[in-house]
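For practice. Any example?
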Amino acid sequence: MDNISKIVGDHVRAYRKKAGLSQEELADRANLHPTYISLIERGEKNVTLKSIYVISIALDISLEALFANIPPEKNPHTIPSECYNIILSMTEKQQQSVLCIVREIERLL
């Protein structure tokens, strides 16, 4: 599959984990098959708009969130997008800690 499928799949996985859901629980909430969720998360399935819509509802997030920070260049593994994906999977408290660290580093530079 193409890079966009992998990026969106990574976002689905990160939001699912942040919500504390298994693939089976997300599939149940979205009325989709767990194997389909697994294929989406691995970027091996070109997800339909309808499916991505029901997944966003099941995760209680906006469609915009699933498509955020998709780099325009062909290589999706840029440093900012990798950092974003790591931070996305953290709790809000962890995200606040990372933000404080980054601000301190910025101040020192």
Q: What stands out?
A: The chain has a mean pLDDT of 89.
